[in-house]
Amino acid sequence: MTTQAHLVLADGTVFTGTAIGAAGVTVGEVVFTTGMTGYQEVLTDPSYCGQIVTMTAPEIGNTGVNLDDEEARKPMLAGFVVHELSSVASNWRSTESLDAYLRRNGIVGIQGVDTRTLTRHIRDVGAQMAAIGTEDPQTLHDRAKSAPPMSGRDLTGEVTTKQNYAWTQGSGVWLEDGRPAPSKAPHHVVAIDFGVKQNILRCLVDAGCKVTVVPATVTADQVLALSPDGVFLSNGPGDPAAVTQAIETTRTLLGKKPIFGICLGHQILGLALGGATYKLKFGHRGLNQPVKDLLTGKIEVTTQNHGFCVDMDSLAGKCEMTHVHLNDGTVEGLVHRETGAFSVQYHPESSAGPHDARYLFDRFVKSIEAAR
User: Fold this and answer.
1) Which of 210, 306, 315, 330 could form a disulfide with 185 if both were Cys (CB 3.0 to 4.6 A apart)?
2) From the candidates 266, 284, 306, 347, which is the catalytic residue?
3) CA pair distance 27, 8, nearest whole angstrom
4) Cβ neighbours of residue 76 under 8 Å, at least 6 residues apart?
5) Catalytic residue list contains 84
6) Is 349 designated active site?
7) Which position among 29, 41, 332, 349 bears the catalytic label?
8) What domains, with CATH codes, occur in the chain?
9) Helix, strand, coil distribution of the chain in percent, nearest 5
10) Is residue 343 within 8 Å of 270, Cβ to Cβ?
């Protein structure tokens, strides 16, 4: 039995389809992500907290769901939009259908949407608040219009760990030449969890790091009390300018320990250095975003998920841009001239996505070794 559902945007645009996943109504910022695979990694990426995610691939769910591919303890996105939900889960690793997984985790979704039209609309007018549910479109429109926008929201408290923990699992893949992961972890890295993806932690272990994960609310003194060799700033959701405590913590740590940031961590580093951030019209999300490493000249195909961007002009004289997005020229990486702290906007852990940028974890380890 199918139940009619609607996706209604704050500007009044209505898409009608059928309900999938959990029953109820959900509200969030509607965005889109490109890529033929990786829907489970998308669902469990904490950076999507507060967002309704549209998959641009025409069919989603054909390989089912398994516990090994989760990037967090549970999905944290607000809602899920697909053109067609596969009725068959055909993969030897699958333990559950996607629809059952959505229901079990309380994720409201909709299928039967013309996702090509929806994506083009978002590209034209920008990401905006929206609502999904089986209620009448006017009620959903009212919910979408009254929802707080993503700008100004600190969502890290909804996704961060509540207490410190050690992470020891690696992926078993060495970064550059296929060597097995080292048996010892000589470098102690404190990873500040703003919504960290688990494969980032695996890549740090692969690179030879002992990893201690700490909450987003950690202070600089608490970080230093753990005697780290380096500090990692993780990905996460929301507006980076609203994560004021993390900005202050990072500012205090600058020059005391090598620092590496990814995604929200990249934005927080830029803000800690006195820079500014701004909201992109519709963001960069997907598995096929082209980036140029300005240090090597190499072109990388990258995984990305962000709606905000660092303003490099605001860091003039302090930082160098190390990576640039080849579609729109926005900054994808920076390095602080004085301390060597560096960061990238994209996701080198490649889960899901290409492995082109995993060398960055090796670069972080080399900066730790140089500091020693």
Assistant:
1) 210
2) 347
3) 10
4) 44, 45, 46, 48, 49, 158, 159, 195, 237
5) no
6) yes
7) 349
8) 4-146 (3.50.30.20), 156-371 (3.40.50.880)
9) 25, 35, 40
10) yes
319 is catalytic: no
pTM: 0.95
Q: Averaged over 321-329, what is the pLDDT?
A: 97
Percent of the residues in the chain that have a pLDDT greater than 90, as a whole number: 90
pLDDT tens for residues 275-304?
Answer: 999 999 999 999 999 999 999 999 999 999
Catalytic residue among 263, 300, 309, 332: 263
How far apart are alpha carbons 295 and 15 in whole angstroms?
A: 45
- The pLDDT tens digits for 183-216 are 567 899 999 999 999 999 999 999 999 999 999 9
CA distance 195 to 16: 32
Using alpha carbons, list the distances in angstroms from residue 218 to 145, 167, 253, 337. Answer: 35, 17, 12, 26
